[in-house]
Each structure stands twice: as structure tokens, then as C-alpha cells.
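R.M. (postdoc): so does anyone remember the format we settled on? I'll just put the C-alpha cells first.
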């Protein structure tokens, strides 16, 4: 056993920390891009700077390095989670896992006592990570409900249809970006920072944090209510309707003044806790060379897996189109369609095929992915199977099939106008399995990457029909999908 100097141990921690960031540079770049955008996390760079400042002021808390078996176990678990997130290309899980790996490194070197004293700056980092979209839906629902009733109570005529608030002068849609998540997170970050620099107790921190986020939520209600009232009274011509984002931040700034005043008046700087006053400066604990070697080995092992596993793929991967009995294959492997414009970001190849039976014409769209990466993947928020400017999304559902190879399929019903409709059925081929569920497909994506066979294909089939023939179109689609899946799975198992 040897008592290494504080500087050497901190340098060793920084080496592992920077090594993990370097290996996961794609995740870091995506994180910075999110902070640089105009979305709900555009306060991220400021929050990061404030957190770094707080870490610097509390650098003495890194003065007691120590061996920690639990920290090693946590490092293995979080590194495994990060590896899975990378293989599955799940952006939010990648960022959260990276944060947890860094937390595990802190615990491994400095123990629970030091990390406990760093809870607030760690929480500041957590608040700027793009992992809080789960709050967007409830905030959106509450904002829509409150705004509707506020406008109604103020005596203005308004009707609600889901997230649409309809007035005689126009229609207001409460989008996800209007949920107030950005206000919520910015307020929480400010409250935690004030709690840190003012040495607030945990109860006082909780009270101030609750007050700050409530003001943020209420300011968003005021913003939406004001936009609806002003817009309905000015025939949608007022500047706050045209530039509601800038107006929203102005409302937030005005509403936030009481939070700042309360922070200075009722939550001002307090003396350190008694426990901190009595704290004795400890000599660095003894930490063995093997322990340092184990930490580095864990970091190196998962870094190597992160680099090597996704690098194994077949660049010539392609779905083998089956021959469907009783259907005429009109054309083969067209690069584009004249009336169908799906978007599959990062696809290695795309093709359209046409099958005819009697008067029923079906289009088959294939998007092949030899490998998948963040933003260039088969399941991605930016992918779409229809042009929203050309088609109106009527319904999305899943339906059960009798095929032993494809138990269910996803269905999208679209409307073009009062006469024409389109039905789209789609599913995925991942790890030699036909899968309709996205979560299951992601899990098989991880397994396929580990096997070195990450090739995957989006399979989508479309049929156009007159509105009165919807039942017949659904039956035709079901029969074709059943035949297609039955003949295709055997041809593609060896791919």
C-alpha cells in the first residue's frame, strides 16, 4: 500500500475522465449541439460554466482519495449501460449513462463523503443534460388545460380540441416546445446555484427550488394565455403571436424577478453547517497500485468494446426481396417513387418495388442500414413515412397477424382529401427477426451489434384507395403482409 499524493490521484482521475469523454466524443458532440440549439436546453453551456465554477470552489473536497469496492461495481454497471446505449443509439440514455460513469469514477476515487458534498454541482450538471423530455408531455397537458380555462374565465370565446385552442380569430396549437420545459429547467438550475453559493440547508434548498420551478410553470401559463387573448383580438397580427418565443422569455424574465428578490431576501448567504466547521483536514488515505490498475482496466475494457463492436458490419448488407405468389412484380429496385416520399436518415440504400394483383397496386419501400449510429438509424425521431404537407395523419395503430414470422404490424392511415386515402404498414428486420415494436427492435439491435451482424431494414408497404374502400384496402394489405413476411424471413435469415 502506498499513500499517493493528492495531485497524482487527481491527475489519475482526470486521465480516466478525459479518456471516457474522448471515447464517447460523438455523445459529447451531440450534447454540445443540443446546448447550442434554440431548444429547451440552450441554457446548457451557461449551466456547465456555473457547475465548473462551483467544482473549482469545492476542489478541497477531493482531498481524501480512497479505495471503494462499491465504486468499482458501480463503474462496471454504468459502463455496461453506456455501452448498451451506444450500441442501441439511444441519445438520451447515452448522455445519462455518460454522466453516471463520471459519477462512478468520482465514487471510485473519492468515496461517498466527498461526492455527498458535491451533490449540488452534480445536480446542476444533471439539469442541463437533454434527458428531461419525459416532463414535456405532463407540462404540455397542464399548460393547455390551464390556458384554456384561463381564457374562458376571462370571458373570451374558446374551444378546446386536444392541444388545439380554437378562437373566432384563429387556432392556437400548444406544441411540445410550448410546454415550458426550458423555463422549468432554467429556474431549477438558478435555484440550485443560489443554494450552493449561499450554503443553504437541504430543507431551504428544497423550498427555494420548489418556489422557483412553480414560478417558471406559472409564467408559461401566463405566456400562452396572453398570446391567445392578444392574438384573438388582433386577428393574429400582433408581434407576440408572430414571435412568441421571444415574448415567452420576456414574460419569464418579468415573472422571475420575485424569485431573485426572494433569493436575496429570504435565502441569503448562510454560515456553513456545524459539521463543516468542525471538519478536520484528513491526510490522503492509502490506495494501492492494483486498485488504480483495476479502475483503468475497467475503463479500457469498455472503451475498447465501444470502439470495436460497432466497427464490425457488412458494407454490402441488403434485404433480399421475396417472390410473392399470385402477385406480379412490376418493377425492381427503383431508387425513388413518384408519389411516396419517406425519409430514412443514414440509410445505406433505399428502394421501391411495385406488386400488382388484379386492380390492387402495392408499393414496397425498403431502407437498408448496414450499420447504425446516432442520428443515422432505423428508429429515429427524424425519420418519417409520409409527407405531412401532402397527407393528413388520421390514425396510427398495430394489428395482429396470423403469420408465424410477424405477429403484429404497425399501420398508419392517411387522408389526402375527401376522396383519396393511403394505408401504410411497416415493421423492421433486425437480428434476423421481423419486429414491429420499437423497444424490442432496439434490444435486438444491441444483440446484433454484439454478434457483428448489425444490418437492419425498415420494411414499409403502402396502398392507395378511395375512402369508401377502406375495409377492402385493409384486407388486401393484411393478406399481402402475411404472404410477404412468410416468404421473406427465410431468404433473409442468413444475411
Amino acid at each position: 500500500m502506498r499513500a499517493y499524493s493528492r495531485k497524482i490521484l487527481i491527475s489519475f482521475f482526470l486521465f480516466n475522465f478525459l479518456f471516457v469523454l474522448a471515447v464517447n466524443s460523438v455523445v459529447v458532440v451531440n450534447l454540445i449541439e443540443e446546448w447550442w440549439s434554440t431548444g429547451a436546453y440552450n441554457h446548457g453551456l451557461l449551466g456547465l460554466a456555473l457547475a465548473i465554477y462551483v467544482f473549482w470552489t469545492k476542489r478541497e473536497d477531493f482531498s481524501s482519495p480512497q479505495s471503494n469496492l462499491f465504486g468499482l461495481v458501480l463503474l462496471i454497471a454504468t459502463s455496461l449501460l453506456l455501452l448498451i446505449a451506444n450500441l442501441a443509439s439511444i441519445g438520451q440514455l447515452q448522455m445519462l449513462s455518460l454522466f453516471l460513469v463520471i459519477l462512478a469514477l468520482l465514487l471510485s476515487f473519492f468515496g461517498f463523503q466527498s461526492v455527498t458534498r458535491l451533490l449540488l454541482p452534480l445536480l446542476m450538471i444533471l439539469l442541463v443534460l437533454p434527458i428531461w423530455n419525459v416532463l414535456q408531455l405532463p407540462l404540455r397537458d397542464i399548460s393547455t388545460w390551464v390556458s384554456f380555462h384561463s381564457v374562458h374565465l376571462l370571458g373570451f370565446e374558446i374551444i378546446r380540441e386536444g392541444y388545439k385552442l380554437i378562437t373566432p380569430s384563429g387556432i392556437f396549437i400548444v406544441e411540445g416546445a410550448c410546454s415550458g420545459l426550458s423555463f422549468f429547467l432554467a429556474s431549477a438550475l438558478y435555484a440550485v446555484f443560489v443554494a450552493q453559493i449561499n450554503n443553504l440547508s437541504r430543507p431551504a434548498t428544497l423550498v427555494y427550488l420548489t418556489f422557483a420551478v412553480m414560478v417558471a410553470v406559472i409564467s408559461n401559463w401566463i405566456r400562452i394565455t396572453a398570446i391567445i387573448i392578444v392574438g384573438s383580438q388582433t386577428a393574429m397580427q400582433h408581434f407576440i403571436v408572430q414571435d412568441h418565443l421571444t415574448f415567452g422569455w420576456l414574460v419569464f424574465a418579468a415573472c422571475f424577478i420575485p424569485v431573485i428578490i426572494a433569493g436575496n431576501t429570504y435565502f441569503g448567504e448562510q454560515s456553513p453547517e456545524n459539521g463543516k466547521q468542525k471538519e478536520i483536514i484528513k491526510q490522503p488515505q492509502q490506495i494501492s497500485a492494483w486498485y488504480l490498475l483495476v479502475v483503468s482496466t475497467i475503463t479500457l475494457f469498455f472503451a475498447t468494446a465501444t470502439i470495436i463492436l460497432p466497427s464490425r458490419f457488412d458494407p454490402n448488407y441488403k434485404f433480399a426481396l421475396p417472390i410473392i405468389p399470385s402477385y406480379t412484380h412490376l418493377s425492381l429496385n427503383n431508387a425513388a417513387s413518384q408519389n411516396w416520399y419517406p425519409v430514412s436518415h443514414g440509410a445505406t440504400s433505399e428502394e421501391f418495388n411495385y406488386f400488382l394483383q388484379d386492380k390492387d397496386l402495392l408499393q414496397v419501400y425498403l431502407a437498408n442500414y448496414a450499420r447504425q449510429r446516432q442520428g443515422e438509424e432505423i428508429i429515429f425521431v427524424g425519420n418519417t413515412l409520409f409527407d405531412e404537407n401532402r397527407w393528413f395523419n388520421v390514425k396510427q395503430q398495430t394489428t395482429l397477424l396470423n403469420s408465424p414470422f410477424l405477429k403484429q404490424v404497425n399501420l398508419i392511415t392517411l387522408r389526402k382529401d375527401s376522396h383519396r386515402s393511403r394505408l401504410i404498414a411497416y415493421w423492421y428486420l433486425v437480428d434476423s427477426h421481423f419486429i414491429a415494436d420499437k423497444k424490442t427492435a432496439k434490444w435486438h439491435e444491441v444483440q446484433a451489434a454484439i454478434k457483428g451482424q448489425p444490418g437492419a431494414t425498415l420494411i414499409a408497404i403502402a396502398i392507395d384507395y378511395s375512402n369508401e374502400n377502406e375495409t377492402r384496402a385493409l384486407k388486401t394489405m393484411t393478406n399481402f403482409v402475411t404472404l410477404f413476411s412468410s416468404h421473406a424471413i427465410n431468404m433473409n435469415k442468413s444475411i
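R.M.: ...and that's the designed sequence above, right after the C-alpha cells. Also worth knowing: The first strand starts at residue 159 and ends at 161. The chain has three domains: 6-130+285-311, 134-265, 328-492.
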